[in-house]
């Protein structure tokens, strides 16, 4: 069956370091992949979208890579700040439609 | 991006009653969806709201329990019917804007059923 896996354990890092979050998927051929930030009790906020033919995408301190051979996406936050503390969700959309599947999310804590 | 509003933002309801959640978008959208997110869980798609016709429900969700309307391109409602404590969750409206692939979410409605 189709599956998306994100680190279930929280990631704790020191302010100023780079946070790296992982999204692995199986039995799925995504047309593109999206990353969202979610704060407690709020709706997810869109961050970045990367297509299957793109290797890397950047936006300010954020970088996403997409390896369709490894079936993996990495999400990096450079120069992390305590305000980056949140849950980050990975979401895949299949070819030909908007059937989006979400990962369970990884909780990130950035300590000052 | 789009401004998506949901009403109410939260509610506490009694078992057996129904609640209707509204979603309004300020931009042209191609698709609208309703999701549920139970505590500590990821998002689960309830249905795709179709303009002027019946919604398309995912496995495990039925129209009698979650009736959905979408009378125009930018507005939809989700009703949670005959509620039980298991329906306590955050309900999220989501849209895909015209001419984009990006999916945006509303702020959510936090529902508690006693």
Fold blueprint:
The complex is a heterodimer of chains A (112) and B (114).
Chain A: E1 3-6, E2 11-14, E3 19-26, E4 30-38, E5 45-51, E6 56-59, E7 62-67, E8 72-77, E9 86-94, E10 100-102, E11 106-111
Parallel strand pairs in A: 2-11
Antiparallel strand pairs in A: 1-3, 3-8, 4-5, 4-9, 6-7, 7-8, 9-10, 9-11
Chain B: E1 4-7, E2 10-13, E3 19-25, E4 29-37, E5 43-49, E6 56-57, E7 68-72, E8 75-80, E9 89-97, E10 103-105, E11 109-113
Parallel strand pairs in B: 2-11
Antiparallel strand pairs in B: 1-3, 3-8, 4-5, 4-9, 5-6, 7-8, 9-10, 9-11
Put the structure in a nutshell:
The complex is a heterodimer of chains A (112) and B (114). Chain A is mainly β.
From the N-terminal CA to the C-terminal CA of chain B, the straight-line distance is 36 Å
**Average pLDDT level of chain A:** 92
User: How many extended strands of chain A?
Assistant: 11
**What is the SS-derived class of chain A?**
mainly beta
Strand content of chain B: over 45%
Global shape of chain B? globular
The termini of chain A sit apart by: 41 Å
Tell me which protein chains meet in the greatest interface and how many residues each side has: A-B, 20 and 21 residues
